[in-house]
Amino acid sequence: MKIRHILLILTAFLGAALLVAVAFQIRDELLGYQTAERMAASNTVRERLLLGTAALASERSQTYVLLIGQRSEASGVLELRDMRRQVDDLLNAAEREITATQASLSNTGSSLATVSRIRREIGTLRQQADEFLGAEDARGEQFAPRWFQEATRLVGELQSSRMTILQRERPLDPVLRTEANLRAFGAILSENIARNQALMSRALGSPSVVGGLETDVISQNAGRAELAWELIDGQLAVPLSESVKGSVLKTHESYSATFAPLQRSLLAALLGKVAPAIGPEEWYDVAGRELSNIALMQQEILRSTRERLESELSRARRSVALWSALLLLGAAAVLASILVVRLRVVRPLENLSQAMLRLADNDLEISLPRLARADEIGEMSDALRVFKANAIQRRRTQNEKQVLHARLREAYGQLQKDLEAAAVIQQTMLPPSARIDGIEYHGLFRPSSLIAGDTYNVVRRTDGTVGFFQVDVAGHGAAAALVSVACHHALSQTILTRTQGTPLEAIAVQINEEWPEDLPYFTMILGEIDSRSQRASIVQAGHPSPLVIRADGSIEMIGEGGFPVGMLPFASYERLEFDLGPGDRLFIYSDGLVEAEDQDGEQFSETRLRNLVRDTAAAPSPVLLGRLDDALRNWRGSETLDDDLSVLMLERLPERIPANAVD
Amino acid sequence: MLSTDLRENVLVVRVEEKRIDASKAPAFKDEMTRCIEAGQNQIVLDLSQVDFIDSSGLGALVTCLKRLGPKGSLAVAGATGAVSRLFTLTRMDRVFALHPNVDAAVEQLSA
Asked: Phi/psi at B49 (nearest 5 deg)?
């Protein structure tokens, strides 16, 4: 999984968690808001119903007193018309509210049906009452109790429909519940006062005919009112608003101070058949005033509930708005962080990673992203820049190296070619196997590199002697080779041009004296064989002592040493003379032969050389040299040598063999 | 490749190599030259560890001898076997004073 995915998934996950949490909170707040709305709607409906019930109770009393003829018809009917309109308006309003709150309230259909039915029944009841209101006979008075009973039933039904709604949407808030209870008890109180307003009016109108049953009902109503007050007082323990509490207390006080004693005295008068203190009209007004007091109290409670619900509603609304804003803010924050992560982290990282991969692929043409940042990504970018610079530098160095290497190879090739050419020339300077004046000679020449510091030559002089030399220049390689070439030439020339009688050692002394100090020294055997006599002579200058292989196979070593040439200017040399008869051979070699080491560092040695020579003494010189060469290769265990190696063999031929070239 | 030890104004230079050949000769010559240029003119060269000296090595020895000049002397101690034979073969036994061991050489030089 790539970093971009991890980061984006993490951010998205965190964002989603945040949003889900906020969304849950919003859902809760919305539910709270809906509940508040439902409460408010329910409350509005119940308010209308409560007011409607109170209005219907008033209409009941008014119609009742009109029916029994205690009120002057004209003004009473006008008042009644107002009251009916008020009842209709309130019930209309209640219906409208129920319809309007259909969305938030449950079971509105049955409430609506109940209210409609009650209205229909009110309408029917009113029509019946109207028939008797216009009549100038006692039929009105006869209908009054029935009216009262029916109207009371409808009032009760309105009450219970209100209670049904309250039961359905019971508020959880203790204050709201208490206020609802207060209203319910207030409604009971109001209903009982309203009932007595009508019933007492009738009793006061004709105290003489009032029966015990009627006074019982009135008394019961008064008792229910008292009970309602007790219930109301019982609710005041809950911390209600001051205005509600004040209103309740004030209303109760006025009730207890004026209305209750009056009602009690009237009831006592009625029971005692004593003339009551006031007439029915006055009672009706007193009761009406008490009812409007209670209505005021109810209004106060309603207002408090309304305010409370409204504040709850607006709180819920604010809360929803707040959390919605938070949701939007959260969503914006998530989007912003995704964007920031993409722009500031993911994209630069991807660019860097691509650049790194291409750089790792040796693609130095890439242009690196230029990031002026102080954070880790900026540091990575800077480091990458350094990597690239280093890689470019490395490639440049590598190219330079390759060029240099190619040049070196070329130069080396050229040098090798030169050396090979020089080696060919050096080889051609060496005398091939030949016979001169009864002397046969063979050579073995093996340079350690292409060209050697060893050289030898055999020169035929006009005076019948055969001069020869073998030279080994100190060191090996090109410098030694050049010196050996110079020696070869100088010695060959000296042998050829030497005045007869000049001793060999004088030649050595002269060359030694004239030898430039800067040049490496050399060792040599310089010698001559007189072709007419049996004698030979040599000068040994630091060179290994040559061997003489006699015709009978015995071996002698000639000389014990001498100064090398070119090492010390004052060196002296001596000439060694010895017999070299027919079939005798002179074996001259350079130190590369006896100093050749095997793989353990052991030298081939003089002893091994002598053994080999002794064992091969019967064989012709080329065979002996071939064996020697093979033995050395075996000794070395390889084709290479550490030092130049050369052997020169000179043989005085038996006299019967004619002296002419063999090769 | 060399270790030195000053004994009674004689610098004993011990060659700590088995061979003085073309590959070692330049370094040998340089180190010896430094000893000589430091003012030492009585030098004993202890060759008891050396098994083999080739033509380049011999050249280096002679160069040192020449550099030391007529005032100084370079004695050789402990030359045996091939080294001793080389000295004989090239007559260097007549140029360098050869001693069987360092003590004898030091004694000779400091006398």
From this structure: -85, -15
**Which residues, including other chains, have CB under 8 Å from residue A401's CB and lie 6 or more apart?**
none
> What is the C-alpha end-to-end distance of chain A, expressed in Å?
87
- Contact state of A476 with B22 under an 8 Å Cβ cutoff: yes
Tokens of A17: 């968690």
Given an 8 Å threshold on Cβ–Cβ distance, is A542 in contact with B89? yes
Percentage of residues in chain A with pLDDT exceeding 70?
98
* A474: nearest CB among B59, B89, B91: B59
**Location of structure tokens 């030195």:** B4
| Test mutation, A517, A539, A568, chain B, max B CBs within 10 A | A568
Predicted pLDDT at A509? 93
Spatial distance between the Cα atoms of B13 and A537, rounded to a whole number of angstroms: 41
Phi-psi bin for A466: left (phi > 0), alpha (psi -120 to 50), beta?
beta
Phi-psi map region of A348: left, alpha, beta (phi>0 left; psi -120 to 50 alpha): alpha
Closest partner residue to B55 among A474, A561, A571, by Cβ? Answer: A474
Which candidate from B52, B82, B88 shows the least CB-CB separation from A561? B88
* Cα–Cα dist A90/A348, whole Å: 72
Task: Kindly report the nearest CA distance between residue B79 and chain A, in angstroms.
Answer: 17
CB B64 within 8 A of CB B56: no
The distance from CA B90 to its chain's CA centroid, rounded to whole angstroms, is 15
Query: Domains of chain B: which residue ranges?
Result: 2-110
> What structural domains and CATH numbers belong to chain A?
3-329 (no CATH), 431-652 (3.60.40.10)
Domain B2-110: give its CATH architecture: 2-Layer Sandwich (3.30)
In this predicted structure, what is the pLDDT of residue A40? Answer: 84
State the Cα–Cα distance between residues A200 and A214, nearest whole angstrom.
9
pLDDT of residue A661: 44
Read off the pLDDT of each residue in B34-39 and give the average, rounded to a whole number: 88
Residue A504 parent element (H or E): helix A504-514
Chain B residues with CB-CB distance to A561 below 8 A? 88-91
User: In terms of DSSP bridges, do strands B10-15 and B42-46 run parallel, antiparallel, or are they unpaired?
Assistant: parallel
| Contact by Cβ (8 Å): A97, A169 | no
pLDDT at site A663 = 46
pLDDT digits (tens, 9 = 90+) for A382-396: 888 888 899 899 999
Task: Give Cα separations from A378 to A309, A345, A348, A358, A370 (angstroms).
Answer: 59, 11, 9, 19, 9
pLDDT, position A660: 53
Question: Full-prediction pTM beyond 0.80?
Answer: no
Task: Using an 8 Å CB-CB cutoff, list chain B residues near A605.
Answer: none
Low-confidence spans in chain A with pLDDT less than 50 = 659, 661-663
**CB-based contact A147:A64 (threshold 8 Å):** yes
